[in-house]
Structure formats: structure tokens, C-alpha cells
Amino acid sequence: MSHYPTMYHGMSRFAPRDPPPELLTTSFLDKEVLVLTQDGKQYCGLLCTFDHHGNLVLEAAFERIIVGDLYCDIKLDKVVNGFFLIRGNEVCLIGQMDMDRELPQHMRSVSEAEIRKAQKVEKEANDLKRDMMKRMGFLDFDDYDNWSPNNQA
Amino acid sequence: MLFFSYFKDLVGREVTVELKNDLAIRGTLHSVDQYLNIKLENTRVVDQDKYPHMLSVRNCFIRGSVVRYVLLPPEGVDIEILHDATRREARGG
Fold this sequence. Notes:
The complex is a heterodimer. Chain A contains two helices and seven strands; from the N terminus they run E-E-E-E-E-E-E-H-H. Chain A is 20% helix and 29% strand. Chain A is of the alpha+beta class. The radius of gyration of chain B is 14 Å and the shape is elongated. Chain B contains two helices and five strands, in the order αβββββα. Helices cover 23% and strands 37% of the residues of chain B. Chain A binds chain B through residues 22-25, 27-28, 34, 36, 38, 40, 42, 54, 64, 66, 71, 89, 91-99, 101-104, 107, and chain B through 19, 21, 23, 30-35, 37-39, 43, 52-63, 65-66. Strand 6 of chain A pairs antiparallel with strand 4 of chain B, so a sheet runs across the interface.
């Protein structure tokens, strides 16, 4: 990798030659970032480059799935070296990750199969809840939660 | 351009940005660009328990198109200046 000339000292060799001033992501170059996408997925990786559309390329990227207290980092090794391009209009938020402050202690890393199972269970529970809410749409659930025998209006 | 200039004046103040996916982030406004993309520093998520993945994020860049609300500090809002700027904008100058 080192035979490529470095364009900027201390910056990624993928740095755009003249980053447009309106883009605020320059300081994230070559840093570990977390990208939230519009479809609710999260990707982590080194920010290699970006353009004025906000398209991003991540290096050594992985997708992080969180369900309750479980999480799983899925390596995107189907693409070479984990290089991964995210289209600008899908990006929701880019956060610089502070490696000293990772996920909370109580969260547990599990295998991909386990997280997929947990995801499915969560989705089914949500679907059921939505279905129940729809059937009982005539009840005002905001009031229903606060209802108690001693507190009847 | 009114809101761009307006947000530029708010740089350095504490704001809360609520996104269209209901994530609300509080932080110091670091910079803003013409698309109203926002960069926040010293961020914390309002509902931390619901979004554990955001714990490691201290600085973040938010795409302008996903912002639903920006909650402003009351001391950063001067109604008189805003009125004047609005009139000027409406006149096309």
C-alpha cells in the first residue's frame, strides 16, 4: 500500500485535492467513523474519502447490528479489504468514534446467526404490537397507560 | 441564505438537533454549510439508553436533509434582527 504517493501529510492519500469548503467532513478523514444510514443501519470504518455529493468510502468497514443488549459486528469482507462506498443521499449522520468509549459494559457480542435470530424475534414482536394497536385503534393508548383505578376522571 | 447566515451566528452555542429518525442529539454547534448540514461537538444523545451505539461519538456531522428540528438557545435568538433580515430577504436585497 505504501508505494502510493501521499498527497497530504497527515491526511489520507484518498483526500480530495481541494475539498470544497462547504463540506464539514474533512476533519474526519482517516479517522474511525460511525455512519448511520437512512434505512437505520450503522456502518463503522476508516473514512477514506468523500465528494461534494456526500458519497463516502470507508476502509475496513463493518456493519454493526444492535438488538437490545446484544450486538454483532459483521465484516464486509465480500468487498476487497472492506472498502465500502455509501451513496451520499443514504447518509444520515457521520460520527467520529472515540475508541475509549465503546459500547456500554452490559452489551454482549454474539454471532451473526444469533443476532439475525434476535432481529427476527424483535421484528415479530413489533409487528404484533402494531397489529394490536391497529385492531384496538378506538382506545386512546396515551390515556390507557396512565389509567389506574384510583385515578378515574 | 437567511438561515445559513442565521446558523453561522449561532456557532459555538448549545443546540439540540432532532433527526427524522427520532434521534435527538445535543451538542455545541461547530459549523454549518449552505445545505444546512450541521457539525456538532461534545455531542450527547438525549435518549442514551435507546441509542447505545452513539455513546462513542463525540463529534458528528449531520446531513441537512435528515434534520427535523433544531432547538435553539433562547439567548441566541434576536427577534428584531430576524424581522429585519426577513424583510430584507423578501425585498430581494
